[in-house]
Amino acid sequence: MRISEIAALVGVTTRAVRHYHHLGLLPEPARLANGYRQYSVRDAVALARIRRLTELGLGLDEVRDVIADDAGHELVDVLGELDADLARQEAEIRDRRARLSMLLARARQGRLTTEDELSPELADFFAELGTRETTSPMAAKDRELLALMETATAPEERDRLMAAVRSTAAAPGAAERAHEVYALLDALADVDLADPRVDAAARALADCLPPELTTEISATTAPADQTFLKAFLADFAPAQAEAVRRAMLLVSKKTKESKESEKAEKGGAAE
């Protein structure tokens, strides 16, 4: 069989066959005197196996590992991991459909708002802090930021973020402190960077954050995330942006000191 014939027989493209040759998934067959590849039934069986494995969801690197394992025991492990991953995807799809069903019902009733599109956890957080009722511009920016972070972060990071958010809302006096900080930041809209209220707002913002949320905010100040941070602060008045920046530094310093203290305690206990 020529390459076009084996490709048609197995149901793949000739380009795919050549790609599998290039990756080492499918051995190159012998060539005839005229230079054409001559494929055998054995080659067709190997190519069909590659197609079956990729259709199951395996990546080509995983397919290579399976093929290289003559005993075939690794296939069980790989398929088990694939099954678990598909189960997670099914659970996520069910959750999304349930959420979509609720939004669709509200939309049909003419009661859908932009904040209804938030996750239940984030919506509850805003409700507990009372930020949906306030007219504070800074509160509105805070809601936008948290909504963006929840949407843009990876699932594991999103879970940590929401855990930190829940911890913030559960802290005694959280709502009162949040509104005080919003007021301090709103008051910086037209002030100079040298105004002492900038530092006061920064300290108030840093002090109202619990350790769990402090860790998440510290992560946003990492060098890799500076582009995001700059874009976020660009929407603030200069004094407001400076207050948030100083708060980030205070939070980062507090987190570092806490980790160093824990490390020292562990070291002392080991001695």
Rounded to an integer in angstroms, the radius of gyration calculated over CA atoms is 28 Å
- Main sheet overview: none
Number of helix segments? Answer: 13
% residues in beta strands: under 5%
* Helix and strand composition category: mainly alpha
The overall pLDDT, averaged over residues, is: 80
Order of helices and strands: HHHHHHHHHHHHH
Low-confidence runs: 220-224
Q: How many strand elements?
A: 0
**End-to-end Cα distance:** 73 Å
Label the overall shape.
Answer: elongated
The helix content is over 70%
Walk me through the structure.
Helix content is 72%, strand content 0%. The protein has helices spanning 3-10, 14-23, 41-55, 60-68, 73-108, 120-129, 137-152, 155-170, 174-186, 196-207, 211-219, 226-233, 238-270. Helix 9 packs antiparallel against helix 10 and helix 10 (196-207) packs across helix 13. The chain is elongated.
Give the key terms:
271 residues, mainly alpha, 72% helix
List the helices and strands and how they pair.
Layout: H1 3-10, H2 14-23, H3 41-55, H4 60-68, H5 73-108, H6 120-129, H7 137-152, H8 155-170, H9 174-186, H10 196-207, H11 211-219, H12 226-233, H13 238-270
